[in-house]
Amino acid sequence: MLCLFRWSPFVILRTLLLLSLLASTTSLPADTCTAYPEGSWKLDKDSALTFELKWLDALNNKDSAALNCILAPEFIDTSRTGALRPKEQILGELASRQDQYHQTLTGLNAKLFGETAIVRGMNVITDSKGTEVLRIRFTDVLHFKDGRWLAVAAQETDAH
Question: In this structure, is the dihedral angle defined by the CA atoms of residues 154, 69, 32 and 75, taken in order, positive or negative?
């Protein structure tokens, strides 16, 4: 058989390097974020509820790196006043948050719909003396992607 195309050593080496690079990058997660909270993340209700608590920890600790990993790029929060707050605004406001308040989540409940979780609960906010200041009912939408949860939307309403 007559070979009409001749591979030069340079073409072979370049092809092997390209194939090696492709093989190594496809084994990495699509989106690595080193500040993402540690945990055994699964597509189940308990894992979604644990994620909620990690999210609150990031807020209480003003951990903007973790919060950046937790919130999806397209995340939007509908505040208790009806304002739409994108991820960039949430991250920008984190440093100015007042430390005299403590937040506790109660009544957490999660429902799964495919790779999406809807988490509902109550955020009870108390002052430094432990006096309740505000109760906010919330609904969070989470998406399970690449073996971890991401928050894609949140909505808050004053509870009476």
Answer: positive
How many structural domains does the chain have? 1
Rg for the chain (alpha carbons), in Å? Answer: 22
- Domain range for 67: 45-158
Overall pTM > 0.90 = no
Distances (CA, A) of 158 to 80, 91, 103, 138: 6, 22, 14, 9
- Specify if 15 maps to a domain: no
CB atoms within 10 A of CB 110: 20
At 50-83, the pLDDT tens digits run: 999 999 999 989 999 999 999 999 999 999 999 9
Phi (first) and psi of residue 49, to 5 degrees: -70, -40
Residue 78 tokens read as 């509908």
- Is residue 131 assigned to a domain? yes
Positive or negative, the CA dihedral 44, 91, 74, 22 is negative
